[in-house]
Amino acid sequence: MILNEYCSSAQCSVIGGAITYTIVNEHAEGLPLIVVHGGPGTPHNYLASLASFLPERPVIFYDQLDCGLSDKTNNPQWWHIERFVDEIEKLSQHLGLQQFNLYAHSAGTMYAFDYALACPDKITNLVLASPVLSINAYLAYMLELLATFPENIRTVLRMAMEQNETDTLELMEATAYFAEHHMCRLPVWPDEMFESSVNTNIQLRNHMWGCNDFLITGNLKEYERLSCLSEFKVRTLITVGQHDFISPTSCKKYTELMDNAQLAIIQDASHNPHIEQPRLYADVLCSWLAGTQKYSF
């Protein structure tokens, strides 16, 4: 954790309530980076180490509404992509940012990409870490991965998909196998990973994503943006782990379809390469963001 490096925390009003944000490296002069966490419903803790990679710029973390330290409305009317996209705009306005870098991870890439589609002139650099830009592509690769699992694991996960099971001991063991191989491959997960995991808003996640990573039943199930990529002009870096459950092949396709994008496949890592391969990931991220204009809060 890098909580001792946090410089200031405050709240920002958004539709439905208020979100809590934290600025690290507050007085640094580089162009700020806003970080969008994934989940849906998983607070930002697991991404906190990104700030230590970027001492030259303010790094702004926030917990989305109904996540982490932000307001808990427990109201599903706010759990839709348009409102979460608007959070990014509300936060940037609150901070007075006319221009900034945007980083998003996993499910958060859907919010960030849609924001960049709507407000491309505000984004200097976009980083999509383990992006989901096509639910169809995501599900196809998940089924490919499933076919490689040991038979007992495969059987349990398929049964869970068919019967919508969520809490059997066998399913927990199968999910642990999946996580150890494709979520984070470290033998011991750092505290921030556990903190984010145990504090995930399950109701929000189920409403937007579903209770099973192999079968999307929430309101994001029809998310498809491949048709938007050829016209997308924002300078973009896509990162993905070699063993990620997000397809490196799909990420390569996204990069090729975009006009101004590059791909970094992080070797010996899965869904959280910033934790699994921090030095390599820091080098990739720093070199990508290098050269942006100076900025002060």
TrEMBL record:
<dbReference type="InterPro" id="IPR000073">
    <property type="entry name" value="AB_hydrolase_1"/>
</dbReference>
<dbReference type="InterPro" id="IPR029058">
    <property type="entry name" value="AB_hydrolase_fold"/>
</dbReference>
<dbReference type="GO" id="GO:0006508">
    <property type="term" value="P:proteolysis"/>
</dbReference>
<dbReference type="GO" id="GO:0008233">
    <property type="term" value="F:peptidase activity"/>
</dbReference>
<dbReference type="GO" id="GO:0016020">
    <property type="term" value="C:membrane"/>
</dbReference>
<feature type="active site" description="Proton donor">
    <location>
        <position position="271"/>
    </location>
</feature>
<dbReference type="InterPro" id="IPR005945">
    <property type="entry name" value="Pro_imino_pep"/>
</dbReference>
<dbReference type="InterPro" id="IPR050266">
    <property type="entry name" value="AB_hydrolase_sf"/>
</dbReference>
<feature type="active site">
    <location>
        <position position="244"/>
    </location>
</feature>
<dbReference type="InterPro" id="IPR002410">
    <property type="entry name" value="Peptidase_S33"/>
</dbReference>
<feature type="active site" description="Nucleophile">
    <location>
        <position position="106"/>
    </location>
</feature>
<comment type="similarity">
    <text>Belongs to the peptidase S33 family.</text>
</comment>
<keyword id="KW-0378">Hydrolase</keyword>
<dbReference type="Pfam" id="PF00561">
    <property type="entry name" value="Abhydrolase_1"/>
</dbReference>
<protein>
    <submittedName>
        <fullName>Proline iminopeptidase</fullName>
    </submittedName>
</protein>
<feature type="domain" description="AB hydrolase-1">
    <location>
        <begin position="32"/>
        <end position="278"/>
    </location>
</feature>
